[in-house]
Every structure is written in structure tokens, then in C-alpha cells.
Amino acid sequence: MKILCDIKLVSLLIISLFLIFTSCKQHQKIQPQRKEIIDAVFGSGHIENRYQYTVMANTDGYLKAAYVAEGDEIKAGQQLFSLTNEVQHAQVNNALVNLNYAKTNTSPRAPQIEQLKIQITQAADKARVDSLNYARYARLVKTQAVSQSDFDNARLQYQSSISSLQVLQKNLADLQKNVTLNLENARSQYRIQQENNNYYNITGRAAGVVLSVSKKPGDYVKKGDAIAQIGAGQTICKIYIAEDDINKVKAGQLALISLNSIKDKVFKARITKIYPSFDQNQQAFTAEATFEDIPGEVLNGTQLQANIIIRKKQNALVIPSYYLMDGDYVMLKGNKDKVPVKVGIRTMEWTEILSGINESDQLVAPNQQ
Fold first, then answer.
1. Rounded to an integer, what distance in angstroms lies between the CA atom of residue 122 and that of residue 319?
2. Which of 8, 17, 131, 308 is spaced 20 to 30 Å from 355 by Cα?
3. How far apart are CA 309 and CA 291, in angstroms?
4. 292 alpha-carbon distance from chain centroid
5. In angstroms, what CA-CA distances link 360 with 317, 341, 357, 363, 368?
6. CA distance 139 to 253
């Protein structure tokens, strides 16, 4: 009696397993169906400003003052930080002293110029007297009232006076040229020192928001050190795309953006730029996208995931991608041979079938063969 009960129990167990197995096999048989299929490229990235830039030190020195903090809005040209510049301040003052001295030397009352002008006036008076004397001797020599040697001396004296006057006039012109050139050089040096002085006053290149400040007053900074990050321009999505997918991405394509800070919404954006070179740090290519509807206050650096719509098709004949075998084959119910198919759009979930099977065919999952 016990043996008979055991046999019945085993029989029921076998029947149950058979029914479960049959049900599983039947569950794995499906037919192609019509639906919309979307092909998309996945990318990850973050939010930033289009004209985001780094404020850097233009020279070495200690950070003396910070006039802004994170979150502050700034204007183009606004002073943000200052560095110690005692030596440079002395050089500016020295250049100003030289400039003022050069200006004094170009004044009409400058000692050198006044002295030459006096000498020129005296030389001109002497030349005028010698000219009159030479003319008088020229008349007298004709009547032999004076000797030829006296006339020659008068002529030489006049010529010497004229030469001396011309030399003094040339000296004045050269002096005025030199002091003018010295003045221009002094002005240039003063401008240069003022520009150098501006290196210690660090300003913003464009209007924006202070995103971060990496130095504080008292810190020593070297030329080229980053002091702050400024976000300028509109909010954009910086998206990193795998090398295998970048050729599918084009400007103008729709990107569906999910933000880590707003998990319950998806925002639409358009691809506006594709960078031409590979980013070694990210090991990916880079694209930019602009929101169609800006999602309110979004913090710079917010992480995101993007699905870039490459193409989509309505009423496509599709099968679950799991049913597609390597080499683009499927298995049909009652057919032991693989059936080749031509495929279109492929996604992780669905694959479009262009030819090879129709809606009435019944597919069998590959692992059931």
C-alpha cells in the first residue's frame, strides 16, 4: 500500500514538472509584432556653462585679498583678487619719476634747451654783425681802401659765424629730438610697469557666476595657478560618447536628459556641437547639447545621463532582441533549421525585422532548441 502511494506521488510530481516545462516552452514561443522602435545612443556627462573659464594668477605672489566668494555674480573686468606687489609698486613709482623728468626735459624752459637757445641768439647776433662787416669790406676792397687780406679775414669771420650758428641750430634740433624720444620711452616704460602692476590685480574676463575658489588670502600662488572657476554663458550639457557610437551622433538630434538631482523628470535637449578630437581623460568623444526647456535652477557639475535619438520608426515589425541569434538568424516553431532575417534598428530590448519572417510566424527562443 505504501509503495503504491509512493508511485502515485512520483507520478504526480513527474506530471507537474512536465506541465511546468511545457508551459515554459510555450511561454518562450512568440510572434513578431508591430510597434514603434527607437534607436538611441547612450552617453553620460554633466552640466556646465558654455563659456566656463578658469581665473589664473598672472605672476607669483601671496594672495592679499579676495573680493568675491562662491555664488557671487561678477561683471566683465571686475576685480576678483589681488596679490602682494610691493616691488612692483616701487617699479611703477620709479617709472613715473623718470616720466616726469623726461617731460621736464622737453619743456621749452628746460636748462639744456634754454642754454642752446641763448647760444643760438648770440651766434645769430654775431653772424649778423660779421655779415655787415663782410659786406662793408667787400665794398672797400673794390676801391682798395682795405687790403685783400683784411677782406679775406672778414669773409672767413662771416663764414665761421654762419657755421657756428648752423651747428648750434643742429644741436638744438638733435637735443629736442632726443628728449622727445626719451619722453616716449619713459611713457612706454610707465605703461609697461602699469600693465605689470595689473598682473597683481586679477579681474574677470566675462560676466558670470563664481563657481569655486581654490585659494584663500595668505596662500602663495605661482604664475598659472588656478584661483577660481567662473561659469559664463548659457547652461549646456557636456556629454561623453563611446568611440563606437560617435559617428551616429549629429548636430540637431534630440537628446533625452536625466539629471541625478531631478530623478523623476526627463528633459529634452538638442545636440549643438560635436568635438572633433578624442578626450584622453574621459576615454570618449565629447558632444554638447542645449536644453529646449531649461529645467530651472541646475547646479554646475550636476551629473546626467543622455539618450540621443538616432532614428525611430512607427509600426515596425519587431521581435525581442533575445530571439535574434548571432549572424542574424531566428528559430521558428516546427523548423529545426535557422532562418536568416534582415534587420534594421536594434536596441537592447527590440530588433526590427525587415525581411525573412512575418507576423504569423511563431518564434522559439534559441535556448529552447
1. 114
2. 308
3. 15
4. 24
5. 11, 15, 8, 10, 20
6. 105
Burial 328-352 (b: 16+ CB within 10 A, else e): bebbeeeeeebeebebbbeeeebbb
Look at residue 59 in the predicted model and tell me its pLDDT: 86
Does residue 340 have a pLDDT over 70?
yes
> What does each C-alpha distance from 101 to 106, 108, 171, 184 come to in angstroms?
9, 14, 21, 12
C-alpha cell read off for 273 = 556641437
Question: Is the confidence at residue 297, as pLDDT, over 80?
Answer: no
Alpha carbon distance 271, 202 (integer Å): 35
Beta bridge partners of 202: 81
Amino acid 226 reads A
Find the mean pLDDT for residues 65-78: 93
Residue 341 has pLDDT above 50, yes or no: yes
The Cα–Cα gap between 5 and 237 comes to 71
CA–CA separation, 48 and 176 (whole Å): 59
pLDDT of residue 88 exceeding 70: no
Q: Looking at residue 296, what is its pLDDT?
A: 77
Residue type, 16: S
Average pLDDT for 228-235:
91
Give the phi and the psi of residue 131 in degrees, each rounded to 5: -65, -45
What's the CA dihedral at 108, 111, 116, 122 to 10 degrees?
100
Cα-based distances in Å from 139 to 144, 154, 162, 178: 9, 12, 20, 44
Q: Are 246 and 308 in contact (CB under 8 A)?
A: no
